[in-house]
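Structure ticket #2291
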Amino acid sequence: MSETKLLRITLVKSPIGYSVRHKETVRALGLHRLHQTVVQEDSPSLRGMLLKVNHLVRVEEQEAK
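Resolution: structure written out below.
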């Protein structure tokens, strides 16, 4: 059985001043305020979202429990 990888995503820069698409992507990731961290399962769609806002977030891999 393959284990799913988890990603810790932290909002490190405010999306104010960026396009509406970037703001909506940050919200869709589950981030609402600066320095908030969420844990998401790694997937191709999540990776695409992270590429779009990689200048606003910090991504770290987390071990699955």
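Closing remark: The chain has one domain: 6-62.
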